Amino acid sequence: MGSPDPGVDPYAPGHGHTDYRVTRYDLELEYKVASNRLAGQAVITAVAAVDLTKLTLDLAPSMGVARVSVNEARAVKFSHRRRRLSITLPRPAPVGSALRITVRYSGSPAPLAGPWGEAGFEELTEGALVAAQPTGAPSWFPCNDHPGDKASYRISIAAESQYLALANGELVSRRARAGHTTWVYEQAAPMATYLATLQIGRYELLEQPAQVPIRAAIPPARRADFAHDFARQPQMMAVFEELFGPYPFPSYTVVVTEDELEIPVEAQAMSIFGANHCDGTNPEERLVAHELAHQWFGNSLGLRRWRDIWLNEGFACYAEWLWSERSGGPSAAALAAAAHAMLAALPQDLLPVDPGPDLMFDDRLYKRGALVLHALRGALGDEKFFALLREWTRRHRHCTVETADFLEIAASFSAVPLQPLWTDWLLSPALPPTL
Question: Which of 22, 49, 338, 400 has its CA 20 to 30 A from that of 324?
């Protein structure tokens, strides 16, 4: 009992546990930019899902653990090897028991290597960022690193006062003292560990006029570039609320780093772009749409398991096409035809509903997922299709989902069986010959 479960998600072996569920993370952190030193205390509130005598948290080896307590009992026995913090409970915890685990730790955080490259806490030229998808969260705090275990968060981060520090959620307090400022954020909506983030840099904070508060943290020198390249975010938000239903969080924040980033980074109620995505020429508006759409698809509606990642990326990719269609660019039909032609010339070895860990971030998955939705739109018609999307986001708001959930709700919007469509577009590696 309480041993690590390597089979929690076969796409990410060695991460996550099913013998308990986390309900809340309370993180008290201090970060020194120049030395890349992070010191923290994590208070984790959890519920035992089975009878426990031990439990295990995910935590990178670069983080040294000084002390662990459980339900106020101190001097709890623990061991920290590789990415596993194994804790012997001071007394057995029957199923349903509440657990309050406190971990004091510190170290020099660094990204964690995985099959998809590095993910997690990363130093910037002037500051730091966290890009944790899919398994980088243990690089900076002890956690149950599984996409289906969502919890609320309080994140307090102290840094030198010349830096702006951001985390998920709403800012509830800010206190400056002795050259340091402590920022406290509250994320009430349940959040997966890979969507938790810190962003620290020499940023200024701006606001865009919109019905939903939209904020931006940018280097001062990027002010004009941001005003040009992200000018249509408020209109984008309005279009997506019309098509997908109400925005699921109190506000939305965009961070633009001074460093270049290979791709934008998604986090809950926040997206992070590199300087190369904001240069005054509007180079990547489709990615602005993509990251915003993830707030509905991926963040509010979270994955129960990684194999269903098309529910994140296919929907966000189709949102790019919908924004293009609604903002004067090529229609979704034209973009779908182009994607179909591109995919037809590539290997037909990707199963959208279960791509395997090696292909879960393959661009073909994004396009194939979007084509599934375009085919469904053609079968249902616009009125029913968009009513389906709004019901999908309403029914599963702040929950976790899997493909079967979407197929079930889609069936209720169709007068004819949809199984042939699913077989052709979603459940077969081979791309159908025509749209």
Answer: 400
